[in-house]
User: Fold this.
Amino acid sequence: MSKELSPKYNPAEVEAGRYQKNGLMLMFSSLQEIKKAKPYSIVIPPPNVTGKLHLGHAWDTTLQDIIIRQKRMQGFDTLWLPGMDHAGIATQAKVEERLREQGISRYDLGREKFLDKVWEWKDEYATTIKEQWGKMGLSVDYSRERFTLDEGLSKAVRKVFVELYKKGWIYRGEFIINWDPAARTALSDIEVIHKDVEGAFYHMNYMLEDGSRALEVATTRPETMFGDVAVAVNPEDPRYKDLIGQNVILPIANKLIPIVADEHADPEFGTGVVKITPAHDPNDFLVGQRHNLPQVNVMNDDGTMNDLAFEFAGMDRFEARKAVVKKLEEIGALAKIEKRVHSVGHSERTGVMVEPRLSTQWFVKMDQLAKNAIANQATDDKVEFYPPRFNDTFLQWMEMSTTGSSLVSSGGDTKSLLGTMLRVKYTLVRKHRKEMVGLRTKMYLILGSVLPFGPSQPWAGRMLTQKTSSVTSQPQPW
Assistant:
């Protein structure tokens, strides 16, 4: 009985199940019985269980597979260790998105049932990822597969955490952090995406206690004004020198707050008067530390106003903003509204606007850790970077960590830290552009060597032109 040959190659028909049928998933274990064999290992960069693998994963793992197969044929005792990452907040956001489609939230389920849903998601996408690895024929050792929340790995994390805590390198404290009101969790700086949004500067009049005059202050977030504990003026500003130590009346709340002298207030910016809200602004937090001011948090962790916000308690922060502005206008305390576009941080995970907020969190003192890492690079045990130029990048970031850590812990000038960060960024961008041509050639040769036939060259060309640099955030001709 004849069968017509398909005019096109259909990988779904040919490759599906071949990896499992031939037992290939079990044949790439480490050859521990060959004791004289020189070991060679690669840990696969664990993909997040937030979704399926994409072309970037395929490209990266293909290169690793080429290397590990070569070493295996050369007689090395090879281990290519597979694994996946729980991805924390990102996975939580995906699970919550699915629950919202079903009309429920994680708070409806409760902690334990929500965790069950997270593990269901993990099992679903881990299976999909392994199937994708199988279709690629990756020669990983599945007998040692790991997940970043495995008991063994979790135990190692706890051990290191406790050791660093005992050394005083991990500590708990109240600081201004990036808060995601939707996920109700703290975010690192790299999880905050800044976007230009249309907002406004709301100018308000804070009347002196004796009623002789008013000081004009401006803010983009008037809903946080109930957390104001002072207004600051520059000690060298002749307009306000005689007012330092006096009080102003906080509108709506009708409470007295002091006028303090601090260099954070720039005489050349606006009116030169700055409202100080230590629990809702990182710069104000530092001012508060210098003047021993109280920290008044006026917002709940879901972005609604708490009981300290008077009649606005329970309102969403953006709803409260409109209501507060209306109230200020009614009592004659609103001077003007200045529309402007400004950069606002958004959560990479949920897309909502990030709220700078005082919170009790765990922190790592980087001073000594960074110094140890820098010193280690001058020894025989140093970490080898490929290409070697990334050793300089590593050292720059470690040096910045020591500078930043000391500035923050001592309440020093944040402008110095900003200057350091900008210099490092400029250096990275300059190096990136200088070496771009060589990197482009190198990438093209690698791509061409992986698939030296058919459409590989045009495909490589598209990859070169479409790659985007994370350093400059602009398309680069890679």
Remarks:
- The first strand starts at residue 39 and ends at 43.
